[in-house]
């Protein structure tokens, strides 16, 4: 291969190299931490807090503005889910549900940006690897679902007491008395642990699988000629709006349902 060909090959990566590049994370020096996932999710979280804070500061009892209408529409949607699924009293559940829905939606919506836009812009600053969809990183979805699992445990202990929660781990789902209760206690504990771990596992894998598939499809579309990108990318973007919103809603709704089950008697 001549030098010119080698340079040309370097400037024009193969399809496999292009896909591998866009699926590579920006990591720290020890390659143990995905910096792009952390910073993108943190910035989007601050944007969510800033927008809702501005809406609360500008809220009026008169004719509402567009921002207030939007925030109120989101809050009404979430409140309907909370009121229908969560029957106990809690000052935390509604703010938690709103935060989950908006934050996850913003992270999912990063998929709408052109695949090469942010990586190319940050490339001028020396950043050559960047994945802009935090929910396409299984580490992040597992982290969020682990937080949900801690909330499930916390809500259970608050509603039933530490002793009541511990008793439920050993006496449900198979109820018995006397000697059989002692025999079934390990079985009940195993089933309770399976149920507890299955909830965050399903939450994380469902969100990750859908968003990773969407991200990969956008990368594949970016490899096509420009006219084919518009022809195939346009309908997929329209359909992906539904996927992005639905996955945020499902993550939020299941969290509310799981917390509702946590405070109810088995």
Folded structure, characterized:
The protein is mainly alpha-helical and 266 residues long. The protein has one domain (19-263). The chain has helices spanning 3-11, 15-22, 35-57, 66-85, 93-109, 117-123, 138-171, 179-222, 226-263. Helix 3 crosses helix 5, helix 4 packs across helix 5 and helix 4 (66-85) packs across helix 9 (226-263). The longest helix is centred in the last third of the chain and has 44 residues, at 179-222. It is globular and about 75 Å long.
Question: Topology, pairings included?
Answer:
Blueprint: H1 3-11, H2 15-22, H3 35-57, H4 66-85, H5 93-109, H6 117-123, H7 138-171, H8 179-222, H9 226-263
In short:
With 266 residues, this protein is mainly alpha-helical.
Give the ordered list of helices and strands: HHHHHHHHH
Dominant shape: globular
Which strand-content bin applies to the residues? under 5%
Radius of gyration: 23 Å
């Amino acid at each position: 291969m001549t030098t010119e060909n080698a340079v040309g090959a370097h400037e024009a990566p193969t399809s496999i190299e292009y896909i591998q590049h866009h699926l590579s994370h920006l990591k720290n020096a020890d390659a143990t931490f995905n910096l792009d996932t952390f910073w993108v999710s943190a910035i989007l979280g601050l944007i969510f807090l800033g927008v809702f804070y501005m809406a609360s500061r500008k809220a009026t009892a008169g004719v509402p503005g567009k921002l207030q209408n939007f925030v109120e529409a989101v809050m009404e949607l979430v409140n309907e889910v909370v009121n229908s699924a969560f029957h106990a009293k809690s000052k935390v559940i509604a703010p938690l549900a709103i935060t989950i829905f908006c934050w996850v939606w913003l992270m999912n919506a990063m998929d709408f940006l052109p695949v090469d836009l942010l990586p190319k812009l940050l490339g001028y600053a020396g950043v050559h690897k960047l994945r802009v969809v935090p929910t396409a990183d299984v580490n992040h979805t597992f982290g969020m679902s682990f937080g949900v699992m801690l909330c499930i445990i916390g809500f259970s202990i608050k509603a039933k007491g530490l002793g009541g929660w511990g008793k439920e781990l050993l006496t449900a789902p198979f109820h018995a008395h006397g000697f059989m209760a002692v025999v079934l206690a390990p079985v009940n504990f195993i089933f309770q642990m399976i149920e507890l771990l299955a909830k965050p596992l399903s939450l994380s894998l469902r969100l990750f699988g859908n968003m990773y598939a969407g991200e990969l499809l956008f990368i594949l579309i970016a490899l096509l000629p420009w006219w084919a990108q518009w022809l195939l990318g346009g309908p997929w973007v329209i359909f992906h709006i539904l996927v992005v919103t639905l996955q945020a809603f499902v993550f939020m709704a299941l969290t509310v349902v799981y917390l509702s089950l946590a405070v109810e008697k088995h």
